[in-house]
Protein 1
Amino acid sequence: MTLEFRPLAGRFVGEASPIDLRQVHDAATLSRIRAGMDEFGVLVFRDQPFTDQEQLDFAQRFDGTLHARTSAAVLAKNRFGNEALTDISNVNDQGEIMAGDDRRRMAGVSNRLWHTDASFQDPAGRYSLLSARVLPPVRADTEFADMRAAYDALDDETRASLEGLQVHHSIVHSRQVLGFEFSDEEQARLPGAVHPLVRVIPGSGRRSLYLASHAARIIDWPLPEGRLLLRDLMEHATQREFTYRHEWQPRDLVIWDNRATMHRARPFDDKAYRRELRRTTTLDLPLPATA
Ligand SMILES: [Fe+2]
């Protein structure tokens, strides 16, 4: 049976027809999923009962090399012993719900700011695959924003003014915005990365705004002026018409294209309820130069 995608909301989220991704090894189906990613930007696969290893294996089959530096790993070692398997949870090394003042929780709550994964690294993240393992009995949604539609909605003059601009992304910046401070030694290990503000997605040829809470300054611009432009663009790109709110079901696997979307976690009572998801993110190798 052919894999198909049904639009869930607007034009950038598709729900896959029933499929067991653990069994997908053939090039035709994998390339059908990649084409779906180019068409939509976010794909939802229901009922994917991945083990950790199965998720790692599938992510590699899907897009090659996995990213092992997508979080502020200077804070703590990954509890699974594999930095490519990112722990998106409110659980500590002992498997207990983190205390309210746990330093990792304080760093992690910044994921409630709109961002795109590992933009503070070079290479950044390309696809992220997030698997729902343990869900709380209350809503704990993830929101997505379509950065190609946001780009398309800009007027011609604004679009022209953005061409060629470069942005410094820093996880130190995105955490400091909420009052979280890294030590000098930690900051030295997190220098950030520079990426174009407007990116072209190779598969679709569409242009996309590449923004995130990590976006700290525009290269060669005065700091306040650059930050104001970044804020304006964030405000524009996260208007309701460009966003989708995902209500998680057990065993959902959601894949998004970090080059074409932003996302953020929505708050829930994370000191009362356990929530465990696992993320694998692939490495976004440099794009070929565009004309
Ligand atoms: Fe994220």
Protein 2
Amino acid sequence: MVKSLRKTSPRSSERSGLLFIGDPHVENRQPGFRKDDYQRVILGKLKWCLDYASQHGLLPVFLGDLFDKPRENSNWMIGQLMELLFDTGAVGIYGNHDCADPALSDADSLALLIKAGCLELVSAESPWRGEMNGCEVFVAGSSYRHKVPRRFDVEEFQRQTLFDDKPLVAWITHHDIELPGYDAGRFSPREIENVQLLVNGHIHRRLEPVVKGQTHWLTPGSISRRTRSEANRSHVPSVLQVDVVDGRFDWHYVVVPHQPFDEVFHSAVLPGEADDEPSDFISGLKEMLLRKTASGAGLFRFLEENLAEFSEPVGEEIMSLAKQVEDE
Ligand SMILES: [Mn+2]
């Protein structure tokens, strides 16, 4: 496990709650059909979130996928993240996009933030622990591919304390949870003993909460919109504020300032718009010429829609050539 090289924790200030930040996917390139300066926009959103956390006495908690690409990140961008996180501190888990191998390693960009003491990685064995409004609070979690336990053994962590007040426990995950409105779910939510709140990243749009016994399962969604999809058109980038009030968690969503969908994404070129040309093939080509996206988003959509016209080996060869170009 990657560990901080810092001897002291940056988190000395009084805190009264938590701010959960979902899937920022910071990266140098433009995702999909976005037409803004994505890397500056997403760093600006993170700065807003961290400022908000400081102003409201909240500990920032990252739900995974802080980075979109585990390793190809510029020093400039990692330096900016260090500057943003160094004073506020933060805790979190890693997502599938943060690690190139099945587990996070020293070769991944996120490891630099952890070693620099800018982000504390939490797990079942090493939760964050602190006091908020006179109540003991734990933040533990399961990074991508890590199991979520049936119960959190708070007694184990409380052996050395004099009092036996029941602490509040928030658990963070980055998993395909089976929730209403999400079709790719593989794991059903259940009660986790001693855990009042489970907050899941990985799913990029906000979903309705699910209650299982004492455990509330919340899905805030991503603070960035990466694809020009209808789901994203209605998704409002938000963070989840959780305050500790009278010995319990009290939560609500806070909208992160963002531009309207149509100002963030290139509009789709519709058949007919391209010089009255009725062919999808031609309108697809037009879209590629008009919207030269850095990620090749238009190219891949165009190929997927048109490769059926070719025999299978020819189609596969064209796709593999396109992927080689995209990887460069
Ligand atoms: Mn993600």
